[in-house]
Amino acid sequence: MNRKVSLLNQYWTDIYFHLHYLHKEKISHQVVRILQLVDKQDEIGVNEIASYIQVSHNTASEHVKRLIEKNYLIKRRDPLDERKVILCLTGFGKEVLHRNTSLDEEKLEQVLNQLDDNEKNLVEQALKILSDRAKQCM
């Protein structure tokens, strides 16, 4: 593997390890992936979830049912095609996803306060470039 790729992965895991939120909910990695998919993509249904997490439609449907029961997701009908069900994050689902995938903003702010303005700009620019390119990979 390319040394730079390995270094970037190590930096990312170090950053996440030290700056993530303490997790309140017992939530599986698969549930996090489902919530991320619903958050990051438009008009996600059970079929897209099944394909994304590589399970059967019935298994994905059971996952969705449990996430609705936990108030992480809601179903709504597509206004253009009433037969189609679209999944959306609830406000609580957005909070759970944020706590399980984002950096703790207070911890991050403490780190950023240790940087000068030039360093802050470099970090922001680098992460924006990586984010933009990552979105093109989908």
Automatic annotation (TrEMBL):
Pfam families: Staph_reg_Sar_Rot (PF22381). CDD domains: HTH_ARSR (cd00090). Residues 1-132 form the HTH marR-type domain. One of its GO terms (molecular function) is DNA-binding transcription factor activity. Keywords: DNA-binding, Transcription, Transcription regulation. Its main location: cytoplasm. Signal peptide: none annotated. It is found in: Cytoplasm. Belongs to the SarZ family. This is HTH-type transcriptional regulator SarZ. It comes from Neobacillus notoginsengisoli.
